[in-house]
Amino acid sequence: MAVAVFSHPSSLLHNPGPGHPESPARLKSVLGEFQQMAKGGVVNLLEAAAAERELLEKVHPKDYLDRLEALSEKGGAMIDGDTFLSADTYEAAVFAAGQMVAAADSALDGTHSFAAVRPPGHHATSDVAMGFCFINNVVVAAIAALQRDGVHRVLIVDWDVHHGNGTQALVESDERIRFVSMHQWPLYPGTGRESERGVGNVFNLPQPPGLPPDDYVRVLSAGVERATKDWKPDLMLISAGFDAMAGDPLAGFTLEPEHYSEWIERWRTLDVPIAAVLEGGYDPDRIRLAARATVAALA
Predict the structure, then answer these.
(1) Percent of the chain at pLDDT above 90?
(2) Which of 60, 112, 122, 123 is an active site residue?
(3) What is the C-alpha separation between 146 and 17, in angstroms, rounded?
(4) Exposed, middle or buried: residue 194 (CB in 10 Å: 0-12, 13-18, 19+)?
(5) Domain locations in the chain as residue ranges
(6) What pLDDT sits at residue 118?
(7) Of 7, 191, 196, 203, whose CA is between 20 and 30 Å from 167?
(8) Which CATH code of 2.60.200.20, 3.40.800.20, 3.40.50.2300, 3.40.50.300 fits the domain covering 3-298?
């Protein structure tokens, strides 16, 4: 069955400025791969609506969303030294969340899915934009899914090389959601210690850079196995950052495209719907290969 890939033109309009690593070129490269896969029937390219404001406000306070929207309407602003909001950022962010909500719905309806979007989301806390992120796409999708009949447990797996501090902060008190993150330590944002357990629903796997890739594969596989022991999720959401690839300019992990395939193939044996969303990854020529491998394994 073809994988449903959701994207929206607004994702390419978000502009954090010249020379910024989170550039539109990242997504253009990934979409180029998916367009080729669509010709072979492996991918079905789709476009969804923006996330509804009522849903967004279940994750982010109204005042925070109003502030982001107002800053975009004024032409943009520097949020911090890394995070820049342009005139098109708010629209891109709400549509990015909408694509991930649609991807989760598609997975629950029987078709594994991928949201090819930007800006990324896993560093965004309830009321702080940081780490290139504004709206937490994966948490918005998790909350939306939990409103559906028959969905009681959601597993979020974050394989981005940076810890998803925003995701953890948003879900660590919610027993319906389990969060597994493997990330480089020490590295931005400085969170994600193994001792951070939430209400027993957080499974952090901090790792040093430069290990053999099979070590990282083993560690994350074991973490997911531990999180799902006697706890079968109704939906698996993946924060699919590809900055854990060897050669990424912002980090020091050593993964290759085939390692993402290996994880997906393992987790498909759980017989759980899977939806992934693009997070980091800052070498456009490399992340397209990892994205292709991930989606091919989902298919």
Answers:
(1) 100
(2) 123
(3) 36
(4) exposed
(5) 3-298
(6) 98
(7) 7
(8) 3.40.800.20
pLDDT tens digits, 163-215: 999 999 999 999 999 999 999 999 999 999 999 999 999 999 999 999 999 99
> Closest Cα to residue 189, out of 83, 287, 100, 276?
83
| pLDDT at residue 267 tops 90 | yes
Chain CA centroid to CA 262, Å:
18
Q: Which of 279, 17, 76 is nearest to 166 (CA)?
A: 279
Reported as a single tens digit per residue, the pLDDT across 75-119 is 999 999 999 999 999 999 999 999 999 999 999 999 999 999 999
Enter the tokens of residue 158: 């974050």
How open is the CA angle 229-203-292, to the nearest 5 degrees? Answer: 90
Going from the C-alpha of 299 to that of each of 4, 120, 218, the distances in angstroms are: 9, 23, 23
Q: State the residue for tokens 């109204």.
A: 62
The tokens for 247 are 């050669």
Six token digits for residue 66: 């109003």
152 is catalytic: no
Is a pLDDT exceeding 90 seen at residue 1?
Answer: no
| CB atoms closer than 10 angstroms to residue 269 | 7
